[in-house]
């Protein structure tokens, strides 16, 4: 009657796959919009608005330029979705078991909020390295055009910290 047992490894895996599909694919689909938004934030004199930002990007980089940062977006948000959806269920069950069945029901809103916040904590750690690479690719002309170029360059210049200095703002978001 059910595709899998609630709380089983298969259940968590299916939740994780749902997160990969819902976060990774949707964020990748809007990369052109995200690219223009990031460029507007970094250089508002050059990228004066959405329409102008698309126009300038197309003029300077062509249609392919609108896809800059697609790989770190796909991998980063897929990992975030995997952790967010999978760990939410892990923490919901863990915290529910700690509270007991009756208290878990009575305090279900707080339980769901705590499970969500706990999952997001780890999901943002998974996202941060790819988000850092994406922003470099999208906003620093000439730095790197691909994830394969950006990641080793970032590591060589700043070490592992280059990939995690944005994690605190992600948590605050």
UniProtKB/TrEMBL annotation:
It catalyses: phosphate(in) + H(+)(in) = phosphate(out) + H(+)(out). It is found in: Mitochondrion inner membrane. PANTHER family: SOLUTE CARRIER FAMILY 25 (MITOCHONDRIAL CARRIER PHOSPHATE CARRIER), MEMBER 3, LIKE-RELATED-RELATED, SOLUTE CARRIER FAMILY 25 MEMBER 3. GO terms for cellular component: mitochondrial inner membrane. Keywords: Membrane, Mitochondrion, Mitochondrion inner membrane, Repeat, Transmembrane, Transmembrane helix, Transport. It is a multi-pass membrane protein. Inorganic ion transporter that transports phosphate or copper ions across the mitochondrial inner membrane into the matrix compartment. Mediates proton-coupled symport of phosphate ions necessary for mitochondrial oxidative phosphorylation of ADP to ATP. Transports copper ions probably in the form of anionic copper(I) complexes to maintain mitochondrial matrix copper pool and to supply copper for cytochrome C oxidase complex assembly. May also play a role in regulation of the mitochondrial permeability transition pore (mPTP). Gene3D superfamilies: Mitochondrial carrier domain (1.50.40.10). This is Solute carrier family 25 member 3. GO terms for biological process: mitochondrial phosphate ion transmembrane transport. The gene is Slc25a3. GO terms for molecular function: phosphate transmembrane transporter activity. Belongs to the mitochondrial carrier (TC 2.A.29) family. Solcar repeats lie at residues 10-94, 107-173. Interacts with PPIF; the interaction is impaired by CsA. The keyword Transport applies.
């Amino acid at each position: 009657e059910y595709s899998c047992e609630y709380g089983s490894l298969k259940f968590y895996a299916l939740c994780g796959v749902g997160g990969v599909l819902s976060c990774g694919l949707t964020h990748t689909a809007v990369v052109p919009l995200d690219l223009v938004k990031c460029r507007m934030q970094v250089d508002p004199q050059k990228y004066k608005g959405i329409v102008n930002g698309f126009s300038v990007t197309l003029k300077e980089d062509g249609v392919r330029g609108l896809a800059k940062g697609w790989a770190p977006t796909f991998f980063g948000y897929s990992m975030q979705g995997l952790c967010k959806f999978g760990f939410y269920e892990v923490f919901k069950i863990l915290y529910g078991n700690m509270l007991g069945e009756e208290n878990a029901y009575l305090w279900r809103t707080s339980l769901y909020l705590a499970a969500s916040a706990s999952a997001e904590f780890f999901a943002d750690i998974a996202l941060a390295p790819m988000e850092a690479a994406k922003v470099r690719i999208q906003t620093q002309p000439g730095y790197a055009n691909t994830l394969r170029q950006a990641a080793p360059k970032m590591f060589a210049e700043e070490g592992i910290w280059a990939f995690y200095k944005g994690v605190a703002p992600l948590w605050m978001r």
